[in-house]
Hints:
The protein is mainly alpha-helical. It has two domains: 10-73; 87-154, no CATH class. The chain has nine helices and no strands. Helix 7 crosses helix 8 (123-133). It is rod-shaped, with a radius of gyration of 27 Å. It starts with 9 loop residues before the first helix and ends with a helix.
Amino acid sequence: MVKIEIAETTTELEELLRLTEFIEVRERIQVIYWIKSDRVKTVAAISLLLGKHRTTIFRWLNIYRSQGLKALLTKEKSSGRNKKITPFIEQSLKKKLQDSEQFHSYKEAHLWVKKEHGIEISYTAVYQLIRYRLKENLNISVTVPQINTQRINKI
């Protein structure tokens, strides 16, 4: 038996369920609604119905106890992984691309970023940055040129 005091009425919770767009938030409200309306008696039953682990349900209930319904309604956003290409690196590459005839290929740009900024980054990441984010198109000839190491060292 779940022992928690629910402040909201069942009609308020039904209205919230109807208006909520995000599935993650709707599931949390559903748990509170089931407990308030006595449809489900145990956390184990709730976890089976929702397909969530019981510790997740307990975490939601603890959030409700300590912070209220408003805390359950917020959708948490993951910060994700930090980008290897910082805004500073992006700006320096953009400036270098604006100088005429700096890079003859994406490979040269890739090697320049690795050498100049000392980061280990893939060719694809540099290509996508230049092509799609900076909206630049390096004119690459049909034949694949040999990379001139002296020219790269000069850059």
